[in-house]
Design a protein that fits this description.
Elements lengths: L1 H6 L3 H13 L6 E2 L3 H8 L3 H13 L3 E5 L5 E6 L1 H8 L4 E5 L5 H16 L4 E5 L3 H9 L5 E5 H10 L2 E6 L9 E5 L11 E4 L4 H10 L7 E4 L2 H9 L5 E5 H4 L8 E3 L4 H10 L2 E6 L3 H10 L2 H12 L8
Parallel strand pairs: 4-5, 4-6, 9-10, 9-11
Antiparallel strand pairs: 1-3, 2-3, 6-13, 7-13, 8-11, 8-12
Helix pairs in contact: 2-4, 2-5, 3-4, 6-14, 9-12
């Protein structure tokens, strides 16, 4: 292994690392691009590509076979070796704090799916989609988990792109309107709690109370909500019911969200999305091809049903 590692530092070794990234996108028993096509993409000579392919074969990362006029086929590939040789390293995903079973199930599913794909993977937990996105843009995280609604907005504003959409009810189960015991929605000057770190929650609250100019917005987090209600410092909020149930310990009502626009926004907000930096497009493509999203959602469902102990 030491000898091979040293060869990776040569010009041929650099090409082998770049080629390993490209080969992560190829499935076994598929025809590979021509050597000159690889050379053009990597900006090197045909001989360098051929030497790089030999290095990858000698490492056990791939096995190829020439089939005459049909070209060269990838017979076998070891994704874990390809990933290691590519230099992509361990992917760090930033997720919401695991305060709900749904998030614990999501973390469990993601960790397992990445492990099965032979891709080194780690999770860091950060409160607030804004903080997670900043970490992504600054290169402190490789992937970010957030709602599809937030992902769509960020894709429009920043050099990030969608890696995966896990579908409805994978990020949150539902949102509802929480009303403090004794409070009335029709009361003038209604005090509505909003989380400044959650773009989704803020947008839902603004939609739910659209048209009312008398609202007083109270900045809060879900950890402060019980105290705000108990001390009569806030009257209502729109919140993720996964966070509320069994955690706030307060009286009051949970009401459905209002109009069709709000329900549509809530539906998009319920889907978990994974985004990554556009500059790492090849790595993102490799992640898309490798990770089985059905594994993620199936394991999340098992955690939600109490059939699996969360492990992340």
């Amino acid at each position: 292994m030491n000898g091979f590692d040293e060869r990776l530092l040569t010009r041929n070794g650099l090409a082998a690392r770049q080629l390993a990234v490209l080969l992560l996108d190829h499935e076994p028993d598929t025809r590979l691009p021509r050597v000159r096509d690889f050379a053009e993409e990597l900006g090197c000579g045909n001989g360098t590509v051929q030497a790089a392919l030999r290095l990858l074969e000698e490492s056990g990362a791939i096995e190829t076979a020439a089939r005459g006029h049909l070209g060269t086929f990838l017979v076998r590939s070891e994704r874990s070796i390809l990933w290691r040789l590519s230099g992509l390293g361990t992917l760090l995903a930033a997720m919401p704090l695991p305060y709900s079973r749904r998030y614990e199930g999501l973390a469990t599913g993601l960790r397992t799916a990445f492990e099965e794909a032979g891709t080194p993977f780690a999770i860091t937990f950060m409160r607030g989609a804004g903080a997670r996105t900043t970490a992504l843009l600054e290169g402190k995280a490789d992937l970010v988990v957030l709602s599809r609604f937030a992902a769509d907005r960020l894709i429009e504003e920043h050099p990030v792109e969608l890696v995966a959409d896990l579908g409805p009810a994978t990020y949150v189960g539902a949102h509802g309107l929480l009303l403090r015991e004794g409070a009335s929605l029709d009361a003038p000057g209604l005090r509505v709690a909003v989380d400044p770190t959650s773009e989704d929650q803020r947008m839902l609250a603004e939609r739910a109370f659209a048209g009312r100019t008398d609202i007083e917005w109270i900045e809060s987090s879900y950890m402060q909500l019980r105290d705000l209600f108990a001390q009569n410092l806030a009257d209502a909020t729109v919140w993720n019911l996964d966070e509320v149930q069994g955690r706030t310990g307060m009286g009051g009502e949970v009401l459905p969200l209002g109009d069709e626009v709000t329900r549509d926004l809530s539906l998009r907000n319920s889907s978990a999305a994974i985004i990554g930096r556009t500059e790492g497009a090849k790595a993102l493509s490799a992640v898309r091809d490798a990770v089985d999203l059905s594994t993620v959602t199936a394991l999340q469902a098992e955690v939600l049903r109490g059939e699996r102990v969360p492990s992340y």
